[in-house]
Amino acid sequence: MANQSPGNLQPVQTLARHGKSFYWASLFLGSTLANRAAQLYQFCRYVDDLADGDLPDRHESLDNIRARLIGSDVTVAPEVESFLALAASSHIPPRAAVELLDGMLSDQRPAAFADEAELLRYCHAVAGTVGLMMCRVLNCPESRAESFAIDLGVAMQLTNISRDVLEDAKMGRRYLPASWVNLSPAEIAAAAPDCHQPVAQAIAQLMNLSEQYYASALLGIRLLPFRSRLSIAIALRVYRQIGVVLIRHNLAWWKGRVMVGKGEKILLSVRSLTDIVPLSVPVHNSRLHESLQGLAGVEPK
Q1: pTM for the whole thing?
Q2: N or C terminus of the chain with fewer C-beta within 10 Å?
């Protein structure tokens, strides 16, 4: 039987098939919020698959989606129209969705970031914006929660990059900043023994950076509506565990992706109960957003 594309699946089915860690976390949201979160995921998955696919007109398709998001009357896929309805009902800022598309469009060029600031701005575009949108989907009444939600998106994207170094390199992409490791995607994709250690060291830097954003996001979870806290805490802990598993495998990036097992997910879910206890939340650490000035949801200095 042929695999179904995300476009042929209902939102929750898309989440269950393509976002197993997020699906596990969504089970704790309740059906209404889980379906709304799945709708957001389906849209993000749709544009991500389009950006990473091999369709010759994918750049034009992404441009059309971006145009539709800012109000142009162009024909787009049902996933996009469904998202627009969700955005209207959830008061999602259009700018966040537009910046997400800008991030996907940037992936149509070879990725070769010079430094950490470029990396962080990219992470905000493709994932920080999703955290911002998720805040609205979950009906969060606390506006300052959005800064912490952006941090969770950035942290998760840094984890994605850590996990997918080899896979990305085979697609001609090197998200590791040149200031950390100045190897070409082709050199990384070849995975020769002499590049194992330099790339592993850069991945370790990525993971250290992600820990700063995960720590901030964990504080902000308590600003979410109580019903949503456990689900987001689980998503955070399970996704963060990908890095822990990678370390357990001695950062052997050349061996391909690592995964978090079901038993670990259950254990992390139990541990997440400690993250929802009401506590006062400190002021967001603005230093984490120094490189993100001018982007959606980022408070000006």
Answers
A1: 0.91
A2: N
Cα separation, 44 vs 38, in Å, equals 10
Question: In b/e form, how buried is each residue of 90-104, taking b as 16+ CB within 10 angstroms?
Answer: bebbeebbbbbbbbb
CATH number of 10-291: 1.10.600.10
Structure tokens at 182: 């100045």
- For 5, phi then psi, to 5°, come to -80, 160
Q: Which amino acid is at 33?
A: L
Cβ pair 224, 231 in contact under 8 A: no
Contacts of 224 (CB under 8 A, 6+ apart): 135, 138, 140, 142, 145, 232
**Where do runs of H (alpha helix) occur along the chain?**
11-18, 20-26, 31-52, 58-69, 78-90, 94-106, 116-123, 129-137, 145-163, 165-170, 185-190, 193-220, 226-248, 262-271
pLDDT by 10s per residue, the chain, length 301: 233 344 556 675 655 555 556 666 667 787 788 888 889 989 999 999 999 988 889 999 999 999 999 999 999 999 999 999 999 999 999 999 999 999 999 999 888 899 999 999 999 999 999 999 999 999 999 999 999 999 999 999 999 999 999 999 999 999 999 999 999 999 999 999 999 999 999 999 999 999 999 999 999 999 999 889 998 999 999 999 999 999 999 999 999 999 999 999 999 999 999 998 878 999 999 999 999 999 999 999 7
